[in-house]
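anyone seen this seq b4? input:
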Amino acid sequence: MQQPHRRRGVRALTALVAVTALAMVATARVRASDHQDTPEVELNPRMDINDVYAFPGSSPERVVLVMTTSSPIAGSSAAFDPNLLYQFKIDNTGDAIEDRVIQVTFEGTTLATQRFTVRGPVAPAMVGTATTLATGGPVVRGTVGGAVSGDNNIQVFTGLRADPFVIDLEQFFNIVPDRRPSTGPLAGPATPTATAFRTPGVDFLRPFNTLAIVVELPKALLQTSTAADASFGVWGTISR
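predicted toks r here
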């Protein structure tokens, strides 16, 4: 992921993906969610999941999971919330219920001095949105802003990065004016005849930042089988 910018931005997308032994492919159930589309995340932007990604790692046997959160961010002023539990949920049986979790917690309130703990992948203590910490499994600890290696050949990065999401947000609010904010630079006026994005496209979010949790690990820690067609689903949650 790119180095962070020193400006701010607004966006969100949540994706569910399946990972095969050789490549990542989207499942039949892939969806996007509007940015800050509930009162809870409007009041608590650190709870807002921007994006969840899964892609091949540094070798065919490895996979990278990424969760981005906490927009808008002005420069490096934002930090992970130590009162929240950030989780990757992994379903490896096809029933849309997590069989493994990777749980991330933070200590401290200033990004430059925050520390993180990554637990898992491990069987969850309770499925769903519960905030119960799992026990057992690998544990990786380190300081936000740097890459850390742990047991079971797991590598972790947490910190500020340039937001990779791409959207012409100004034109989006012209196409769907009921989503336009009531204040701020995107408040209006609307273009009521807009029906499509502009050509060439305008990446409104290009200079903006996000907070990222990145975990690279062996796929065998997530799968129930090493068969070539073995797959699993991944999604993310943030909860109190």
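Residues 169-175 form the longest helix (7 residues). Residues 17-165+207-239 form one domain. kinda curious what u guys think
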